[in-house]
């Protein structure tokens, strides 16, 4: 993934001019206009938080001042948790100004706020999902349809009656149907030979791989098999539950084939490294391989716009791919076969699979990750890069990703951060999070409803606290307690230690800051937030903030369920 270079001032919000405070009566959700003349006062102790519903409580707030300078972090966020085909998004504006004293207000006859002149900074454009992202989304969407089909219920009954069959042996040949295109509506048949057999995995290698001096060796395949048996399989099945065994051989097939490389012919925006498809667990589905199987790319020479895949590249990539895809396999079993008719929301399913990668770092000793030097590098690099891309510019990137979207790297970063944060605060075992993750997978609840049921906290509250934590994480001088932080590792320190060698700033989330008047506008996506640091000068009465939609007198799209999350930093 490429790392873009951005100005340190970027917040993802464009600053524009607007007029004074509205003069009509109190807020009314049925009225599309902004009607707020009595801001809700917010006076907090350091570390204290408050969440205000913009539509049903107040669209404007005043953070209090005092004898000494005070600083607050304000997140204007979407609490919308319901996933939809196209997702939820809409224009937002956030205006601030110094709050006049009571004496000044009584003299003028109105509590007018001077919003001042605007400052304009550019906004980022979210990078669209790649062809590989779209391919993985397509698989999950197809699985949702399959989970609701009669095939799933029939196969669930058949799986419970499956008898143990012969375990494949080294040298045995078999055939597989492999997706031929990114739509997976047609298949190429691959003949492959068993190269290794483990306690939980059987590795097949395509018999017709192109001649290439850098192919995987038998020792590489044995290393991958033992890693899967000793760590990847136990970590995933402990965290999420058991996979199915529809062909009764008590093994998962791993097929290494250049047919995976060929699904995408233009690798300019990424390539497919490996995947799982739930159709393979439904023998009645056309193209099903009627077994548990993962497909992975193979080392190949360069071709067209796709660079070569070296042996070293494959060895570094495959462990994280397998532990990621195994969560999808387990989820499909638990939701479509054990509990027929159900599948997880795409954003949370991906968040859990990226969390599975994190488990690889937590549960595997470094000596078992020789191809990357450390297991942190092998299993966490992708998550940290995705999260960085999200935190640079959160507002226009969905946490609650649209079902029709492939799930960009930034969206995946958001989902991983959210699941990691949940595990940090709602799992008895904060190292592996097993209590939380098993509860999220082994249920019929989905998405935000699932999260709220497992944690016992409304999603709207969780989202607000998470957005605050994304900036307050290990912030100098801020008390690291409660849920306004990450407990599992030092996210801020990790980025800082890799600046400027990998990342172009010490920490990606750099909110705009004001000590008086500023006006911000932009686009807010479902589940995401825009951040603003508000510094109230010593002796000032306070600073008023007002949220609006497309214009300074329009409400924010109600489907966003907009809210303020406020915390006093100092």
If you had to describe this structure to a student in words, what would you say it looks like?
- There is one protein chain.
- The chain has a 6-stranded mixed sheet.
- It is elongated and about 85 Å long.
- Helices cover 32% and strands 18% of the residues.
- The chain is α+β, with helices and mostly antiparallel strands.
- The chain has helices spanning 102-108, 131-147, 150-160, 218-240, 258-262, 311-337, 346-363, 375-392, 409-426, 434-441, 447-455, 459-472, 491-497; strands at 40-42, 49-53, 60-64, 70-78, 89-98, 173-179, 187-197, 201-206, 252-256, 274-275, 293-296, 512-514, 518-525, 529-536, 542-548, 562-568.
- The two termini are 37 Å apart.
Distance between the first and last residues' Cα: 37 Å
- The structural class is alpha+beta
The proportion of residues in beta strands is 15-25%
Number of strands: 16
Radius of gyration: 26 Å
Kindly report the spatial arrangement of strands forming the biggest sheet.
Answer: 6-7-8-9-11-10
Shape: elongated
Order of helices and strands: EEEEEHHHEEEHEHEEHHHHHHHHEEEEE
Which percent bin holds the helix content?
25-40%
Note the main sheet.
6 strands, mixed
Number of H/I helices = 13
Q: Show unreliable segments.
A: 1-32, 105-111, 116-124
Mean pLDDT: 88
């Amino acid at each position: 993934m490429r790392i873009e270079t951005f100005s340190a001032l970027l917040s993802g919000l464009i600053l524009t001019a607007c007029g004074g405070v509205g003069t009509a009566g109190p807020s009314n959700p049925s009225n599309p206009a902004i009607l707020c003349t009595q801001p809700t006062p917010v006076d907090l102790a350091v570390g204290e938080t408050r969440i205000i519903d913009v539509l049903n409580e107040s669209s404007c707030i005043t953070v209090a001042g005092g004898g000494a300078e005070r600083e607050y972090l304000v997140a204007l966020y979407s609490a919308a948790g319901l996933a939809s085909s196209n997702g939820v998004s809409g224009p937002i504006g956030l205006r601030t100004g110094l709050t006049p004293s009571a004496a000044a207000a009584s003299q003028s006859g109105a509590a007018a706020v001077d919003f001042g002149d605007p400052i304009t900074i550019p906004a980022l454009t979210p990078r669209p999902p790649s062809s590989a992202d779209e391919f993985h989304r397509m698989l999950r969407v197809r699985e949702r349809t399959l989970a609701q089909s009669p095939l799933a219920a029939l196969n669930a009954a058949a799986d419970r009656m499956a008898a143990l069959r012969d375990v494949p042996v080294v040298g045995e040949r078999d055939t597989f149907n492999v997706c031929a295109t990114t739509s997976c509506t047609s298949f190429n048949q691959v003949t492959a030979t068993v190269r290794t057999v483990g306690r939980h995995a059987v590795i097949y290698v395509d018999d017709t791989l192109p001649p290439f001096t850098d192919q995987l060796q038998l020792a590489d395949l044995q290393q991958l098999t033992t890693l899967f048996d000793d760590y990847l399989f136990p970590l995933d099945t402990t965290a999420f539950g058991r996979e199915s065994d529809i062909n009764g051989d008590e093994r998962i097939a791993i097929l290494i084939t250049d047919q995976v490389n060929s699904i995408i012919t233009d690798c300019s925006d990424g390539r497919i490294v490996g995947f799982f498809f739930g159709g393979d667990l439904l023998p009645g589905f056309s193209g099903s391989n009627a077994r548990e199987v993962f497909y992975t790319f193979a080392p190949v020479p360069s071709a067209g716009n796709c660079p070569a895949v070296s042996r070293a590249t494959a060895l570094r990539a495959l462990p994280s791919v397998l532990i990621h895809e195994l969560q999808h396999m387990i989820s499909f079993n638990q939701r479509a076969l054990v509990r027929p008719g159900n599948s997880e929301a795409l954003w949370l399913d991906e968040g859990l699979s990226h969390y599975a990668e994190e488990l690889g770092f937590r549960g595997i000793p470094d000596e078992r990750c020789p191809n990357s030097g450390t297991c942190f590098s092998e299993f966490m690099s992708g998550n940290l890069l995705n999260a960085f891309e999200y935190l640079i510019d959160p507002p226009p990137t969905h946490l609650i990703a649209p079902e029709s979207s492939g799930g960009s790297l930034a969206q995946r970063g958001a989902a991983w951060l959210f699941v990691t944060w949940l595990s940090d605060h709602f799992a008895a075992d904060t190292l592996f999070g097993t209590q939380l993750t098993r509860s999220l997978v082994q249920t019929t609840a989905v998405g935000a409803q699932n999260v709220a049921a497992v944690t016992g906290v409304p999603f709207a509250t969780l989202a607000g606290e998470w957005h605050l934590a994304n900036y307050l994480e290990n912030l100098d001088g801020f008390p690291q307690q409660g849920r306004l932080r990450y407990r599992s590792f030092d996210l801020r320190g990790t980025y800082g230690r890799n600046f400027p060698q990998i990342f172009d700033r010490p920490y990606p989330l750099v909110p705009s800051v004001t000590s008086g008047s500023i006006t911000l506008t932009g686009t807010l996506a479902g589940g995401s937030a825009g951040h603003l640091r508000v510094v109230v000068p010593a002796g000032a009465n306070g600073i008023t903030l007002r949220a609006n939609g497309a214009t300074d007198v329009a409400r924010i799209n109600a489907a966003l369920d907009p809210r303020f999350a406020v915390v006093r930093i100092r």
